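Exercise 7b. Backbone tokens:
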């Protein structure tokens, strides 16, 4: 989007006037940060069940009223009336990203991103009748047995629903995208009879067309082999891609490399000097990353099928665990989920983006993920440490440096600003990674709130 267009859009949104929001936020509160990037928007009340998450949110939003409460257990009348609402309901029963047993996930009470449920959205709107609602969750929420009933209930309550499938590496309508691959499902809702948002235009990323050059992409759904019909839900590449708006030819959206947010000044221990050897799977991923990229991000999780990836692409999806390590020469290796082995650091990280100089390798230490370069976007950020960094470009694996991705780097993958206060002196690294991985990427919240408000302003 050209700067002139972006400024004109901001001016339009500013004319809408001040609007208040309720934010049932998740993790570190990226949704609130995104809301506040739009002129005239303020979060009147923010709610989360985790005391530490509330403390971090309050430190960064002192003018917002906070309540540390389980939304599923409170009466909506407890809270002040607002114009709009953002909900990030719990996704632990829907997500397949963690790669651990559901019983273990549900036992991790504090690690849950939110205690709100999808039904709390309907319950709160029944009382407040919001002018606009944004609901965020994992794509797998569609597999929830109550999904169809929930949509019917919201529609019967007077809301017009719009489902959106968006990747954090492409959300760049009102600003830069994140350095991370992170697919999410959103539902934008407004009262029936009011103007519908122009979603197709808002989720169209800038892209490169072989015939037309610089253009914007149009989301197009892949054909289902079983039915022969276009799919209508899913993730980037797997279920949908982008085509040129002019010639309908395939295009590749511009993305931001993981390497740009990696701190290459941090030391990394040589692999050959480690007192405790790395796991065999992690070592194989590192070797794969060295062979494929020379520099990569490497998954260190225990599951099979994870590959390293280049630091030249976005980071893979960031989860609640620290599962990615960095190797030099830099390439990114995934730790959890997916089937990739490695990618360059010039691409986004797999759901959290990382970037830095030209010498770094992120190596996940969980599961199947392998290394990837730091030129790619970061893998998806989760709520646990999953990535490590290797800064030594030597071909011998024992001469390569290796370290885990740090909480500040994970926060940057989620598009949080450097000034965001994570209360590092009070909150452990593990909990800060959880907050980053459970949060909504700031750029996604910014663009979707902008999309909603544009329809209200025109």
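Sequence design result:
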């Amino acid at each position: 989007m050209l700067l002139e267009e972006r400024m004109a859009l901001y001016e339009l949104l500013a004319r809408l006037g001040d609007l208040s929001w309720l934010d049932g936020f998740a993790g570190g509160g990226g949704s609130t940060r995104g809301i506040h990037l739009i002129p005239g928007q303020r979060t009147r009340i923010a709610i989360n069940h985790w005391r530490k998450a509330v403390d971090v949110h309050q430190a960064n939003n002192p003018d917002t009223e906070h309540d540390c409460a389980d939304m599923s257990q409170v009466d909506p009348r407890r809270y002040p009336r607002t114009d709009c609402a953002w909900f990030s309901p719990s996704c632990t029963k829907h997500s397949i990203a963690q790669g651990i047993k559901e019983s273990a996930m549900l036992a991790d009470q504090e690690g849950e991103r939110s205690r709100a449920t999808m039904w709390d959205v309907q319950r709160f709107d029944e009382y407040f009748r919001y002018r606009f609602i944004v609901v965020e969750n994992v794509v797998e929420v569609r597999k929830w047995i109550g999904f169809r009933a929930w949509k019917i209930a919201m529609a019967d309550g007077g809301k017009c629903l719009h489902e959106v499938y968006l990747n954090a590496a492409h959300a760049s309508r009102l600003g830069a995208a994140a350095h991370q691959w992170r697919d999410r499902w959103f539902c934008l809702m407004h009262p029936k009879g009011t103007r519908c948002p122009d979603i197709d235009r808002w989720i169209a990323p800038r892209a490169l067309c072989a015939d037309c050059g610089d253009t914007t992409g149009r989301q197009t759904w892949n054909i289902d082999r079983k039915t022969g019909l276009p799919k209508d839900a899913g993730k980037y590449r797997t279920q949908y891609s982008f085509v040129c708006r002019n010639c309908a030819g395939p295009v590749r959206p511009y993305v931001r490399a993981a390497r740009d947010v990696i701190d290459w000044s941090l030391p990394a221990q040589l692999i050959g000097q480690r007192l405790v050897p790395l796991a065999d799977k992690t070592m194989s991923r590192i070797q794969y990353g060295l062979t494929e990229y020379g520099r990569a991000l490497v998954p260190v999780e225990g599951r099979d099928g994870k590959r390293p990836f280049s630091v030249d692409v976005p980071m893979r999806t960031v989860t609640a665990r620290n599962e990615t390590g960095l190797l030099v020469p830099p390439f990114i290796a995934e730790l959890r989920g997916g089937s990739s082995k490695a990618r360059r650091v010039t691409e986004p990280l797999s759901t959290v983006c990382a970037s830095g100089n030209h010498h770094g390798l992120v190596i996940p230490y969980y599961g199947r993920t392998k290394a990837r370069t730091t030129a790619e976007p970061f893998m998806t950020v989760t709520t646990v440490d999953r990535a490590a960094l290797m800064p030594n470009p030597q071909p011998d694996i024992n001469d390569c440096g290796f370290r885990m991705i740090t909480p500040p780097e994970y926060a940057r993958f989620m598009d949080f600003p450097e000034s965001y206060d994570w209360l590092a002196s009070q909150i452990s690294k593990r909990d800060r990674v959880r907050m980053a991985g459970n949060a909504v990427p700031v750029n996604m919240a910014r663009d979707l709130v902008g999309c909603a408000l544009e329809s209200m302003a025109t």
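Instructor comment: The longest strand covers residues 315-333. The chain has a mean pLDDT of 84.
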